[in-house]
Amino acid sequence: MIELQPDGVQIFDGPMDPHAPRPEPPKPRAGIVVESISLSTGKSAWSITQSVTNFWKADILEISPNGRYALISWPNRRSLVVQAALIDLRNGATVQMFPMSASGGQAGFTDNGDVIWIRVAGKFRFYRRS
């Protein structure tokens, strides 16, 4: 899996020379964030594309126990805050977005799949699907 990132130089935490030239801001890039591919034909059943303008952390990928939904990291076009998206795997519809933070977070389903949990900065939130 290759995560969708903008083109450009990404600076990680570390000492920097204040006189060193700053890299140019990343160039926006569009591409597929999530896609369903048929194992028998190798063809795409559906895909969701997105345009990214900032570097983001894609570390959430959870499938519900019944295989109907996926929780995935989702880039936010307007800020550095990463979101988690609940995707219906039957048709690729985005069901709901959950706010995370700039450093991401964790998300998953309970054993029966009725409750989605989100953990950001040591705090949990629970969402019941109806």
Q: Can you offer a commentary on this structure?
A:
0% of the residues lie in helices and 43% in strands. It is an all-beta fold and 130 residues long. The chain has a domain at 56-128. The strands form three sheets. It has a four-stranded antiparallel β-sheet with strand order 3-4-5-6, with no helix packed on it. A three-stranded antiparallel β-sheet has the order 7-8-9, with no helix packed on it. It has a two-stranded antiparallel sheet with strand order 1-2. Strand 1 and strand 2 form a beta hairpin. The relative contact order is 0.15. The mean pLDDT is 81.
User: Which strand order does the major sheet show?
Assistant: 3-4-5-6
* Biggest β-sheet strands, sense, barrel: 4 strands, antiparallel
β-strand number: 9
Taken in chain order, the helices and strands follow as EEEEEEEEE
Mean pLDDT: 81
In one word, what is the shape?
flat
Structural class: mainly beta
Tally the helices: what do you get?
0
Give the N-terminus to C-terminus distance in angstroms.
31 Å
Report the radius of gyration as a whole number of Å: 17 Å
How much helicity do the residues have? under 10%
Show unreliable segments.
Answer: none
The share of residues in extended strands comes to: 35-45%
